[in-house]
Amino acid sequence: MRIAVIGGGPAGLYFAILMKRDFPQSRITVVERNQAEDTFGFGVVFSDATLDAFKQADEPSYRAITESFAYWDDIAIVAKGQEHRVGGNGFCGCSRRTLLMLLAERAREVGVELEFRREASPEDFPDADLIVAADGINSPIRERFADHFQPEVDLRPNRFAWMGSTRPFDAFTFFFKDTPHGIFIAHCYQYEAGASTWVLETDPETFARAGLEGMEETASAAFLETVFADELQGHRLITNRSQWRRFPTIKCARWVRGNVVLLGDAKASAHFSIGSGTKLAMEDAIALHQAFLAESNVASALHAFETGRREDVEKTQHAANVSLVWFEHVKRFWDFSPTRFAFGVMTRSKAITWDNLALRAPEFVAETQRAVAEEVGGSPRNPPMFQPLALRDMKLANRVVVSPMCMYSAENGVPGDFHLVHYGARAVGGAGLVFTEMTCISPESRITPGCTGLWNDAQQAAWTRIVGLVHATSAAKICLQLGHAGRKGATRLMWEGMDQPLEAGAWPIVSASAIPYYPHSQTPREMTREDMDAVTAEFTAAAQRGLACGFDMLELHCAHGYLLASFLSPLTNTRTDEYGGPVENRLRYPLEIFAALRAVWPAGKPMSVRISATDWAEGGLLDADCLAIARAFVAAGVDLVDVSTGQTVADASPVYGRMFQLPWADMIRNEAGVAVMCVGNITSADQVNTIIAAGRADLVALGRPHLTDPFFTLHAAAQYGVRDVACPPQYRWGQDAALRNGAKDQAELRELKLKARPASHAPRAAE
Questions:
Q1: How far apart are CA 110 and CA 113, in angstroms?
Q2: DSSP code of residue 758
Q3: Using CA atoms, how far apart are residues 261 and 5, in angstroms rounded to an integer?
Q4: Which of 335, 343, 482, 755 has the greatest number of CB atoms lying within 10 Å of its CB?
Q5: Residue-wise pLDDT tens digits, 250-304
Q6: pLDDT digits (tens, 9 = 90+) for 17-47
Q7: What does the mean pLDDT of the chain come to?
Q8: Which ranges of the chain have pLDDT less than 70?
Q9: Residue 329: CB partners within 8 Å, gap ≥ 6?
Q10: Which of 14, 71, 423, 562 is the catalytic position?
Q11: How far is residue 658's CA from residue 350's CA, in Å, rounded to a whole number?
Q12: How far apart are the first and last CA of the chain?
C-alpha cells in the first residue's frame, strides 16, 4: 500500500508505526506542517488501562514512553481550605514533546518517511491507497469537505489556558480558588522531573470580571500567579502559546470520504478534564490498524473502523462532556461541605461511582458516608441511599422511589387486583416512597382507556384499598400523581401503539393551543377560560378524594407533553392571551391549579410537581425557562421537583445514556434551592448512592428496575449490609439469609474486581 498521513501528532505517527511494522512493504509518509521539535502545550496523561493497550499494540514504543513518564496513584482535590486525596487511580504524565520525539524515532526505526514544515492536502498524493487526515482539532481537510463529513462544533462557554510550572506534584491535583472575581480552577500534574502542566479554567463571567479578555499571555500568567500564589509554592507559571480559548467539542457524522479517513481530534475531540485527547487519538490509531489487519481491502477496513470504533469514541466523548459541564457549573456545588464537594469532583463524569471509589479509596468513601449522614441526622453506618429524608411532616426511611409508571390496566379508571399486587409488592420491597401512575381527574383527561382515575366513588374505594395495603404491610409512603393528558389523550394502550390515536371510541381533547401531537392525531380544542375553571375544579375534587384515600403526598403532573406541560412549552403554547408568550405567562395556568391543590391539601403533607426540564427540540424550553418554572413552583409552596425531560413533541431528539436527565436535576436542586427527584436510565444501587452523595438529587426514582425486581431496595440493603430496613415479619428469614449471602457475595465480587483491575505501570523501585 501507499499510505499518506497528513499530520504528525500522536494519532498520525502511531498509526504509521503500527502499519509499517505489520505491512513492511508499504510506503508510508507522514507530513507535518510544523518543525520536528515544535509542540504546543506541556504534558499528556495516560491511565493504566491505556498503557495496557499501548503495551499490546507496540511494545517498543510502550517501553520508550514508560521510561520517560512521571507516575502517580493519587488524585488530590484542594478546595475550601481542605485537601482530599483519593488513591488507586494509576495515571502517568509524559511530556508532549518527548512523546512526539519518541514516536518519531520509532517511526523512523520501522521505515516510515517523515517530512516536516510542509503543508499537504489529499491531492498531493494521487497514487495513495489511503490518506489519513490526522491534522488536528482545526483540521483543514475536515473543514474543506465539511458537506461530506458534516462536523458539529459545540464551542463551550468556559475559558481555559495551558501553562506549565516547575512545581513538582506527587498526585494529579485539582485546585479550586474562590476570588473576588469568581472561582478559578487549576488542573495540575507532573509529567517529568521538574515540569508540570497547569490547565487554568474559569467561567466566562469570572473571566470578564478579572479583566482577562485581550490580556497577552505573560500578563495573564502573572495574574494567575497571584491567584495561585500559595499553590505554586514560589514557582512561576511558564507559557507556550498559552492563549485563553473556549473548548470545541467536535463530532462528525462521517469519518470516511473515499480513501480519506479522519483520525484523532480531526474527527472527534474530548475535553481535557478527563485527560482523554491524546488517549483517544492513539486508541483511534490502534483501532484503524486493527481494521486493516482484519479486512482485505481499504474500503472494507475503513468501513470496519468507522462502524466498530464509533461507539467507544462516543462513550468517551459523553463522559468528557458530562465532566466539562460539571466544571462549567462548579458554583452550583460550592456551598457543599469540602468532603461532598470532593466526592462530586471524583464522580463528575459518571465513570467513577460509589462502589468504584469504595474499592480504591474506602477511607474517603467512609468519610463521605459520614458527611451525608450528619447533614440529615442519619446513621453513619448506612450508605447515602439508606439515609432518611423529611418533606414537611412526611419522613422517608430511604431515598429510593418507585417511579410513576402507567400500567394501562384499569377498567373505567378503576385500579384492580393487578394494581393492588403491583403497588403492594413494591412497597413491601423496601422503597421509601411509591408513586402512583398518572391518575386522571376525569374520563376526558385520560391518556388511554386503560388509565386509572379518581373522579368517582368506585375509583376512590379501590385506591383506598391500595393505600391501606401499603401502610399496613410496609414503611413506605405513597404519593398520588394527578394529571390530565391534554392533546396526548384518547390514544391506544402503550403496547398497541404508544401515543397513536384511537381508531374508535375517542373522546374530545383540549390543550393550550390547537396543535395535534402527530399530523394524524386528533386536533385538540384550545382551552377557554371556562375550560380552565372546569379542569381546575376536577383537579381539586380528585385531590380531596386522594386525601380521603389516605395518600401521604400529592404530585401535579406538568411534564411529558400532557395538558399542563403544553402550557409550559413554547412549542405547544402559541396563545396570544395572558397564558401565552413569555415563560411567566405560560406558567400562569399550571400555577393556578397548583395553588388550588395546595389550598385543599393539608399543610403538613408535601406536594411535588413533575416537569420536563427540556423538550429536546429546537425552540423548546431553555435552562433559564426551566429554572423560572422551578422557582415559581417553589414560591408557590412546592416541596419537591420531580425532574424528567422530553416527550413534549413527536420529533424530539433526546440524547440517552446512563443517568441522562441528571444535569437538569442538579441544576434545579442547587440553583433553585429545592429538593429534587431524578429519574432516567438509573439502574443500580451504586448509581443511587453516587447521585445522593454528590448532591445531585435528594430522591432517586427507578422505573424499569422495579418492574422486574419489586425487592430492589431490600436486595440493595443486603448488598451493603444495611439491617435497619423495614421488612414484613413473614419475610424476615429471607432478609436474614440475604444479608448473610450479601456479605459473602460482596467479598467475592470485590476480590474479582481487584483481580480485573489494569496492572499498575508504576516504575519498579530500584533494588
A1: 9
A2: P
A3: 10
A4: 343
A5: 999 999 999 999 999 999 998 888 766 888 898 999 999 999 999 989 999 999 9
A6: 999 999 999 999 999 888 766 666 677 878 7
A7: 92
A8: 36-41, 275-276, 752-767
A9: 666, 667
A10: 562
A11: 8
A12: 47
Q: Say how far residue 115 (Cα) sits from the centre of its chain.
A: 42
Catalytic annotation present for 562: yes
DSSP H helical segments within 477-606, as ranges? Answer: 494-497, 529-549, 563-568, 583-586, 588-600
Of 371, 255, 259, nearest to 313 (Cα)?
A: 255
How far apart are the C-alpha atoms of 401 and 473, rounded to whole Å? Answer: 17
- Closest C-alpha to 340, from 374, 389, 378, 379: 374
| Interatomic CA distance for residues 496 and 494, integer angstroms | 5
- What pLDDT is recorded for position 39? 60
HSE, CB side, 13 Å, CA atoms: give it for residue 251.
13
Burial of 722 (0-12, 13-18, 19+ CB in 10 A): buried
Burial (CB count within 10 angstroms: exposed 0-12, middle 13-18, buried 19+), residue 111: middle
pLDDT given at position 266: 93
Whole-number Å distance between alpha carbons of 100 and 95? 9
Q: How many CB atoms are located within 10 Å of the residue 334 CB?
A: 14
- CB 467 within 8 Å of CB 550: yes
* Residue entry with cell 444495611: 722
Q: Which three cell numbers stand for residue 448?
A: 388511554
Contacts of residue 719, Cβ cutoff 8 Å, sequence gap at least 6 = 685, 742, 745, 746
- Whether residue 313 contacts residue 40, with contact meaning beta carbons closer than 8 Å, is answered with no
**What pLDDT, in 10s, does the model give residues 365-393?**
999 999 999 999 999 999 999 999 999 99
Identify the burial level of 461 via C-beta atoms within 10 angstroms of its C-beta, where 0-12 means exposed, 13-18 middle and 19 or more buried. Answer: exposed
Q: How far apart are CA 666 and CA 700, in angstroms?
A: 12
Note the helical H segments in 573-622.
Answer: 583-586, 588-600
Amino acid residing at 156 = R
Please say whether the dihedral angle defined by the alpha carbons of residues 392, 393, 396 and 397, taken in this order, is positive or negative. Answer: positive
What per-residue string of b and e applies to 290-321 under the rule 16 or more CB within 10 Å gives b?
bbbeeeeebeebbebbbeebbeebeebbbbbb
Residues β-bridged to residue 200: 161, 186
pLDDT 10s digits, 574-605: 999 999 999 999 999 999 999 999 999 999 99
Contact between residue 154 and residue 248 where contact means Cβ atoms under 8 Å apart: yes
| Residue bearing cell 431553555 | 622
Residue 473 phi, psi dihedral angles, 5° rounding: -115, 0
State phi, psi for 325 to the nearest 5 degrees: -65, -40
* Beta carbons within 8 Å of 309's beta carbon, 6+ residues apart: 284, 287, 288
| Rounded distance between C-alpha atoms, residue 213 and residue 226, angstroms | 17
The three cell numbers of residue 106 are 520509532
Exposed, middle or buried by CB within 10 Å (0-12, 13-18, 19+), for 119?
exposed
